[in-house]
Amino acid sequence: MRPERSPQEPSPQRSLARNRRYILIGLAILGVVLVIGGILLYRQWRQEAPKEETTERALPPPGDELQVHVLNVGQGDSILIIAPGGKSVLVDAGTPGSGRDVLAAMERYGVKQIDLMVTTHAHADHIGGAADVLRAVKVSAVLDSRVPNTTKTYEDFLEAINQTGARYIPASPGQKFDLGGNATLTVLAPIQPFFTKNQLRSGANEPNANSVVTRLDYGDFSMLLTGDAEAETEARLLDAGANIKARVLKVGHHGSRYASSEKFLSQGGFEVAIISDGANNRYGHPSQEALDRIRKLNIKLYRTDLEGEITIVTRGSGYEVRTEHPASGDSWTGRRPPKQGTTRAE
To answer: Which of 191, 167, 64, 181 is closest to 118 using CA atoms?
Structure first.
């Protein structure tokens, strides 16, 4: 006969069920504590852990198109840049009379004004059409080397700046111009003190050696614009630690043998070189010596005298080079001046 339980004493089944509830509640509480603790520990680790930096993060995503048009102005330079945000830059304006070619190109590409005109130096094959452009369309600012030249072309250029009210900016290394859409133009030269005649080799001159050198950047695309910079300029840039590495090079001084030194080309790491020059020019540009140095480094070459206008397009990731027409001759064959001993006047 089993002993009787008092009414208050729970049955074994009830005790077991109650203990199970307590265990489940305890496990649930423990689980919540573990989850909260894990979250707190993860947050602390994320705060203390070093953040990984990648090249891709530093670059803008592929965006609007950047266009660089190396205009065919004969034996001279003129480069029209149309930035992703719509701003425009004109680097030089060709020979006297080339103003109409520049204006025609602007109309062709829908450019209404020039936000920045860069005059690399005061020779007529670079500023010859500048006054015409200044008087025909709005030019907001002019970036100039400040190295004068006693010619009427240079005087007309300065007068046009005064007449139109364009802002005159002396070029200085480190200046950076925001072109919009993450595109920038940075000044690398001239580096002061300016070169003087006694620092240059025979036939060289101060305007060329003190050319404005700029670097165009947009995403992973870069281009070095060198005006008529010569070997002395290149050496000074290297000594100053300037960032000359770029994917595209506008070859200095139309491919003169006194520019594009092997050291400069090698350290620049260029993939493409573009020479702006005229057929049968009296200077023998481009020289065979310069072409051989470019070819030795397996750099792809384009020339306005053989292929007409040369256009580069990029969306900040990769780039494409287009020419007005197929090359009319061998790009790797240099020219000879009609008369031997021609000086490096321009």
So the answer is: 167
Residue spans of the domains in the chain: they are: 11-51, 55-323
**In the predicted model, is pLDDT for residue 42 greater than 50?**
no
* 8 Å CB contact between 8 and 15: no
Identify the CATH number of the domain defined by range 55-323.
Answer: 3.60.15.10
Q: 3-state DSSP helix/strand/coil percent for the chain, to nearest 5?
A: 35, 20, 45
- Residues contacting residue 64 through CB under 8 Å, at least 6 positions apart: 84, 85, 181, 315
Please say whether the beta carbons of 136 and 162 come within 8 A. Answer: no
Distance of alpha carbon 216 from alpha carbon 222, whole angstroms: 5
CB 282 within 8 A of CB 256: no
Which distant-in-sequence residues (6+ apart) come within 8 Å of 296 by Cβ? Answer: 262
Distance of CA 213 to the CA centre of its chain: 11
Report the predicted TM-score, pTM, of the whole model to 2 decimal places.
0.81
**pLDDT, position 20:** 63
- CB distance 135 to 110 below 8 Å: no
Q: What is the DSSP letter of 155?
A: H
Name all contacts of 154-163 with Cβ < 8 Å and 24+ positions apart.
154/122, 154/127, 156/131, 157/119, 157/122, 157/127, 157/130, 157/131, 159/131, 160/130, 160/131, 160/134, 160/135, 161/134, 163/134, 163/135
- For residue 154, is pLDDT > 60? yes
| pLDDT over 70, % of the chain | 79
**Which residue type is seen at 258?**
Y
Residue 180, helix vs strand vs coil: strand
Check: CB of residue 172 under 8 Å from CB of residue 147. Answer: no
- 266/341: higher pLDDT: 266
